[in-house]
Design goal:
The chain is mainly β. Helix content is about 5%, strand content about 50%. The chain contains six helices and 40 strands. It has a 22-stranded antiparallel β-barrel. It has a five-stranded mixed sheet with strand order 1-7-8-5-6. A three-stranded antiparallel sheet has the order 2-3-4, covered by helices on one side. The longest helix has 8 residues, at about 65-75. It is globular. About 50% of the residues are buried.
């Protein structure tokens, strides 16, 4: 079956930033193309603000991953180490999230060379698929800009890779670091002024700083480019084969009882296999008209394995013993056969491949009491492709700098999802056991999911940038979205199945004003609206009466409403040679926000539901300085993210009990109110530079404490340092030290029950607080050779 899929575009923009690192003053530059596929654009950015990271900054900082680089460089952006894997964090910007994990409302759209990178099934973002060394430019757009399409609720992230015109040398880099970190990176490039090629091959391995948490990353990017006076084309191909283990949150008391590297249960493994190809084209039709567009195909296969404790109990069944769904409250506490709960009081398990009259004792010689774990597996095959095309008319009127963009596009995706829950033995009898699981070869029929999903997104957009006066510009934009999600349950049909067809459409407008008539000062104001449809993963897990277990078990799909966000933003930028200051105030109001209601003793068990209204508002203050051999930057942001309508949060393992009343004004958990980011860099000599970063995040509420009734995760600060030494024009040495002062802190918290797993070996551990501990002090040394 053919599928189409595509990507987005926008309007013209301008933005102040410092120039290349080697230049001696902060330069006013323009960002061309707020539309992901458009290289065109005028020098006025009217819808919100723009932040940018270029390849020079990336090369100097020596960051390990894209998310680490963004966390240290971009205002209002933070990361939560939910999985404690450097390639699997939650990225949060202005209270909205882009995460590889199902269960979080995804509110940031991500693009690579104009191709939408949010996964079709859950709108998630797999950060491991980006090779940091291949990126030429990272651009973060604020606000609910409608032209960027689905999930652009809080902002849009656009990534542009290098090509053979940007980089004209070959480079081999070797890196070693803490916790078994090893990396080899090869970059090849060249051009003959018309044609160019660029190849980036990257291999990364680490043992991980947590117990049993190794990862292996393999990334490949190839760009073939052509340039002529009236025609530009870029063909890019990417492939990944990654295996990551991120063993997630851990009971806070276990860290002191066992060690800071302790894990709760294992494994928690994710494999991603990406293959994609994209073609970007631009042609000048005349002096006033140009046509550009893209087309792509993308396939990403994601496989997960999760080891956990069990929600099943031994029970009497047809004169023997089987397993039933239940919890500790249903147990008699006695191992004698006559005291085992009867299956009539609970729901007996039906085993995959066997009749419902067959019990566990008929199939296995194992003692049912020993089967106290589960091994959950999931496979998602996301295939998508599509196109976008837009016509650009410049100098629309007889005077001024004006531009009109009209574009259309279509995205289609076909998704095959399968999941299984295998009964297992949890190895937790002694302190020396690693709390891993071993499957017994029997599977729960009711937990098995086979789902086929087809998604169609069609859209039409328009953007008009008008220079009303030499100092005053107006920008108008709008987009119409039409979406259809068709879900086919391959196991069941009819009522109670996952079958369903969900249709959504919405018109989203935006406008902005920019005034630059004052000396060195630009004033801006904008209003924008965007929306997102519920993802297939959310639609498949929206039944209050039958909660599911993410990322595996899905149930019947009551419809969810689409999320609509409106953002108002005002700002000022003051720019002089060697210095720049900016102030931004924003407010984003979400209607029908989708949240995940926890409905079991594990954070991943529950269902998705709409709530009427949430709000995220805040202030951003930024400054840049350069004097002599020093460069400094400072960012501060305040975020007030709140629920604005009442609802009951089930939160069954909340310390104060289940069913907590959430009131308007309560803070959304997991969001620090205050962040400070400071950077100082000095050129010691022509060949040596050194830099330091100071990052501060204030306290935040645990997920599950939406009513704001319990203790918070305390705030933290961390210091990082890096050094670059050009030994020769070809040979360079780089060093980076993260968490220089070796601070112990937590970036994430949630609630869960630990007694079932730990009560026999760590009876003192009875807290329901689970945390994501931060990585201790670590270093990386890189040796690079250009040839």
């Amino acid at each position: 079956m053919k599928h189409f899929s595509s990507i987005v575009f926008l309007l013209s923009i301008g933005f102040y930033a410092y120039g290349k690192q080697g230049e001696q003053q902060i330069e006013k530059i323009s960002i061309h193309g707020q539309t992901p596929i458009s290289p065109h654009g005028n020098e006025y950015y009217l819808l919100g603000t723009v932040q940018q990271i270029n390849s020079d900054t990336i090369n100097k900082s020596n960051a390990m991953s894209l998310t680490e680089q963004m966390n240290s460089s971009l205002a209002s952006l933070s990361i939560n180490d939910v999985q404690n894997n450097p390639f699997q964090p939650d990225v949060q910007y202005r209270g909205f999230t882009a995460s590889p994990l199902l269960g979080l409302p995804q509110g940031i759209s991500v693009y690579l060379n104009g191709v939408r990178f949010n996964e079709p099934f859950g709108d998630t973002v797999n950060w491991d698929l980006f090779s940091l060394s291949s990126i030429e430019k990272v651009t973060l757009y604020s606000g609910s800009n409608p032209i960027f399409g689905q999930n652009t609720l809080g902002g849009a992230l656009s990534l542009t890779t290098k090509n053979g015109f940007d980089i004209e040398h070959n480079e081999l880099s070797l890196q070693v670091g803490s916790f078994g970190q090893k990396q080899v990176n090869l970059q090849l490039s060249g051009n003959n002024e018309r044609w160019a090629y660029y190849v980036n091959a990257n291999s990364y391995q680490e043992d991980g700083w947590r117990d049993g948490s190794p990862s292996e990353i393999k990334q490949l990017l190839v760009n073939i480019s052509y340039r002529s006076p009236n025609f530009i084309t870029d063909l890019f191909m990417a492939a990944n084969d990654n295996k990551m283990v991120g063993n997630g949150a851990v009971p806070i008391e276990l860290l002191s009882q066992q060690s800071l590297t302790a894990i709760y249960t294992q494994p928690d493994q994710t494999k991603t296999q990406l293959g994609m190809i994209g073609l970007n084209l631009q042609t000048n039709l005349s002096s006033s008209y140009s046509l550009n567009g893209n087309i792509y195909y993308r396939q990403n296969k994601i496989a997960s394995i999760n080891g956990d404790d069990s929600d099943y109990l031994p029970c009497m069944f047809s004169g023997g013993i089987t397993l039933c769904e239940g919890d500790d409250d249903d147990e008699s506490g006695d191992d004698n056969l006559e005291d085992v709960v009867d299956a009539e009081e609970l729901e007996a398990v039906t085993f995959v491949g066997y009749d419902e009259t067959i019990g566990f004792s008929d199939l296995s010689n194992l003692d049912a009491e020993e089967v106290d774990g589960t091994r959950n597996t999931g496979k998602t095959d996301n295939s998508s492709y599509g196109f976008t095309t837009q016509l650009v008319r410049s100098d629309l009127f007889t005077h001024g700098n004006n531009e009109l963009i009209i574009g259309i596009g279509a995205d289609k995706a076909s998704i095959d999802f399968a999941s299984d829950s295998e009964f297992a033995i949890l190895h937790n009898d002694t302190i020396d056991d690693d709390r891993s699981v071993s499957g017994v070869g029997l599977y729960d029929y009711d937990s098995m999911v086979r789902l086929k999903t087809n998604i169609s997104y069609y859209y039409l957009y328009l953007a008009n940038s008008i220079e009303l006066h030499n100092d005053l510009s107006l920008n108008l934009a709008a987009r119409y979205n039409n979406s259809q999600i068709r879900m086919n349950d391959l196991i069941d049909s009819g009522p109670g199945s996952l079958d369903g067809v969900h249709k959504y459409n919405h018109f989203n407008p935006a406008l902005g004003l920019s005034y630059s008539g004052l000396d060195n000062l630009t004033l801006k104001a904008s209003y924008s609206q965007s929306s997102r449809t519920p993802s297939p993963a959310e639609l498949s897990c929206a039944d209050e009466e039958d909660p599911c277990k993410l990322p595996n078990g899905f149930v019947s799909d009551p419809p969810l409403e689409q999320v609509i966000v409106t953002t108002g933003e005002v700002g000022a930028i003051y720019h002089k040679p060697n210095q720049q200051y900016s102030l931004t105030l924003y407010s984003s109001v979400s209607e029908n926000d989708i949240i995940f209601q926890q409905a079991g003793n594990k954070p991943s068990q529950g269902y998705f539901v709409n709530i009427d209204k949430t709000k995220r508002q805040g202030i951003e203050v930024s400054s840049l300085f350069r004097f002599g051999d020093y460069r400094l930057s400072a960012n501060y942001n305040f975020l007030d993210a709140t629920f604005e309508s009442p609802y009951i949060s089930f939160s069954p393992v909340n310390p104060k009990g289940a069913n907590r009343q959430v009131s308007p004004g309560d803070t959304i958990p997991g969001q620090p109110k205050h962040q400070v980011k400071l950077l100082i860099e000095k050129e010691l000599t022509r060949y040596i530079n050194i830099g330091g970063e100071y990052l501060y995040s204030s306290s935040q509420f645990y997920r599950g404490d939406e009513a704001n009734e319990n203790d918070k995760i305390v705030g933290h600060s961390v210091v990082n340092m890096y050094l670059n030494y050009g030994i020769t024009p070809q040979l360079a040495l780089s060093v980076r030290i993260n968490n220089l002062l070796d601070k112990q802190y937590y970036t994430f918290g949630t609630y869960g029950e630990s007694e079932e797993v730990l009560e026999d070996v760590y009876p003192e551990v009875d807290s329901v607080e689970f945390v994501g501990p931060a990585k201790p002090r670590s270093f990386a040394i890189t040796l690079s050779y250009k040839f």
